[in-house]
Amino acid sequence: MARRFEELEVWQESRELTRRIYALTQEPGLKGDWDLCRQIRRAAISAMSNIAEGFERGSTKEFIHPLYIARGSAGEVRSQLCVVMDVTTSDPAAIANLQNNYAALSRRIWGLIRYLQQRGDATVIRETDEDYCITPDSLG
Known about the structure:
The structure is a single chain. The protein contains five helices and no strands. It is mainly α. It has one domain: 23S rRNA-intervening sequence (de novo design (two linked rop proteins), Up-down Bundle), CATH 1.20.1440.
């Protein structure tokens, strides 16, 4: 298991998708819809943040619940991308690509949940706080 949440591939993927959501919400066709932009950004951030939050709790049992929330947030983003497709002039292929990427993220989160469930409820996933020095290079 990773020593920091930043090392988790599922968190890295969620971070990249959050960047892409922010880029999408800066496009002229969507930029003026403050409510939709705010909601889709919050859902994207929620997915990423819940992965980190669960990891930081330190045990398998405490990691799983936030992962379910992260998975729900990924589904929320996919739903909101349907709205983007329906009400804006954004590129439908780009929107569909993001929806597919969020569907893949949901599957990866589900896979992590299943893996953790198989490990058992009492497993400690992060034993110490050593190597927690964050540098710009360590964040990618």
